[in-house]
Amino acid sequence: MANFNKVILMGNLTRDVELRNTQGGTALAKFGMAINRKYTANGESKEETCFVDLTAWGKQAELLNQYVRKGSQLMVEGRLQYSTWESQEGGKRSKLEVVVENFQFVGAPKGAGGGSGAPAGDDGGGGERRAPARRPAQQEGGAAGGEVDYGDIPF
After folding, report:
1. What gap in Å lies between CA 59 and CA 29, rounded to an integer?
2. Could you tell me the fold of the domain covering 7-106?
3. What ranges do the domains of the chain cover?
4. With the CA atoms of 25, 17, 79 and 154 taken in that order, what torsion angle do they form, in degrees rounded to the nearest 10?
5. What confidence category does residue 107 fall into, taking pLDDT thresholds of 50, 70 and 90?
């Protein structure tokens, strides 16, 4: 019998990425995502939100920590992982989370302006992706908070 474990989600981060390193030096990122679902039941519009915990490893963890924040839109592809442990009080705990295997930035970064409605770098014609023009850094304190120069992303 074949098995298949694949998850594709698109939503908004519910908190900033928490980046740690393992004892071996591998980057580990933990973050949460909210995925909204709109539907109609008995002629009435309804909405529900699913909250999911995610984990990313290595270079992906570092990139997510650098370029996304609470509220950022993100599309992730990964797999479900079930973990169990014993709490400090001695009770058994468990958690189902998504381990990120691939991700895609969606939309413009927070406060980036624009107005085309298309994701950053989308020329609408399916051609080569282009990064938006660079913005000058603020005079005080370096780069503008929350702004991302997609031309600097190493992929």
Report:
1. 10
2. OB fold (Dihydrolipoamide Acetyltransferase, E2P) (2.40.50)
3. 7-106, 114-155
4. -70
5. confident
Using CA atoms of 47, 39, 35, 6 in order, give the dihedral in degrees to the nearest 10.
150
Interacting residues of 99 by C-beta distance below 8 A, sequence separation 6+: 54, 55, 56, 57, 78, 79, 80, 81
Burial of 148 (0-12, 13-18, 19+ CB in 10 A): buried
Pick from 29, 44, 35, 38: nearest CA to 14? 35
Query: pLDDT tens digits for 6-54?
Result: 999 999 999 999 999 999 999 999 999 999 999 999 999 999 999 999 9
CA-CA distance, 74 to 14, in Å (whole number)? Answer: 11
Q: Calculate the alpha carbon distances from 63 to 4, 41, 58, 114, 124 in Å.
A: 27, 40, 9, 23, 25
pTM above 0.70, yes or no: no
